[in-house]
Amino acid sequence: MKILIIGAAGMIGRKLLHRLAAEGEIGGQKIAGFTLADVIAPQAPPGLPARALTADLTIPGAAQTLIADRPDLIFHLAGIVSGEAEKNFEKGYQVNLDGTRALFEAIRREHEGSGYRPKLIFTSSVAVFGAPLPDVIGEDFLTAPLTSYGTQKAIAELLLADYSRRGFFDGIGIRLPTICIRPGAPNAAASGFFSNILREPLVGREAILPVPDTLRHWFASPRTAISFLVHAASLDTTALGPRRNLNMPGLSATVADAIDALKTVAGEDAVNLIRREPDEGITRMISAWARDFDASRAISLGFVGETSFEDIIRIHIEDELTGSAKPS
Ligand SMILES: NC(=O)c1ccc[n+]([C@@H]2O[C@H](COP(=O)([O-])OP(=O)(O)OC[C@H]3O[C@@H](n4cnc5c(N)ncnc54)[C@H](O)[C@@H]3O)[C@@H](O)[C@H]2O)c1
Q: Does residue 143 fall inside a structural domain?
């Protein structure tokens, strides 16, 4: 099994590679080698059979080069996150839409020539849903995004379903919940504070909370997000039928739930490092985001999410704050 990871230098890409390298197999099949691609030079652990390519998916011909050795399994994780896609309209469409289409087209052309038909896992987002939202988003709720990022992901989902229907590849779109606790430095995602208010106090630093404690949202830990991708890779897609994009199971929790969990795991001193600086703009934006989902389809297909914020915090401590060889 040859694996291509696009977006391999990103947070999810590095963690996915780390797990696959440690396990050496996926879905019972031995991994023969990796191609790692990103605009930022991807790092392969020493001794791993991997070629690391610095590649921009939006450059004509780049996608063709990436699939030149016909990987059996492709993880398409490359993307511009929500905040940046909203600020930089052109870049968001170039990477999240045109880059994705370029990849899909390169695979289609290879398919037309040789019958090549890889499995393709695409990271979508709950941003494909837009307000007004019900308290719990059901499996049949329409995708009507209200951000450029959500629109780009929704278009990519449609393309994925159609290219799969036509048999060019075997695709699955994984609508990830907001990943929390995101390790490392804060990124341009508008949801960054959800991670900041836990990650920073855990190491004795202050963090700013711009929204009310009552605000509810939908979460998964990075470790669980990686498990979703690994599970998707070994899933028999006939069980999906034509609906190739799946809401992942997550944890529906308020900011107050997250802070209570921080208190349980790290004590009152950590909680006191959260500084409340209400920001009306951020509050307005996040209040329009999804709060809870019925993810029964994914659950019936074997995807498993978190059930408590304490678990999310403990996973961060285990994966990021103890041991030394783990990627952030
Ligand atoms: N982290 C989350 O909460 C979350 C939630 C839902 C969906 N997602 C999606 O999951 C994927 C991975 O997220 P992440 O948190 O690891 O983000 P990330 O920003 O850490 O990683 C994305 C990677 O894509 C790379 N990239 C950007 N433009 C590229 C291009 N033109 N060509 C090649 N590579 C390019 C970036 O350099 C980066 O390393 C993204 O598609 C994101 O939209 C993430």
A: yes
Task: Reply yes or no: is the peptide bond before residue 134 cis, omega within 30 of 0.
Answer: no
| Counted domains in the chain | 1
CATH number at residue 86: 3.40.50.720
Contact predicate 283/211, CB 8 Å: yes
Average pLDDT over residues 139-154: 96
- Could you tell me how far CA 44 lies from the centroid of its own chain? 20
pLDDT at 93 over 90: yes
Confirm or reject: Cβ of 125 under 6 Å from ligand 1. yes
Among candidate residues 93, 116, 149, 163, the one labeled active-site is 149
99 lines ligand 1 (CB under 6 A): yes
**Whole-number percent of the chain with pLDDT over 70:** 97
Confirm whether 42 is domain-assigned. yes
Q: Are 286 and 215 in contact (CB under 8 A)?
A: yes
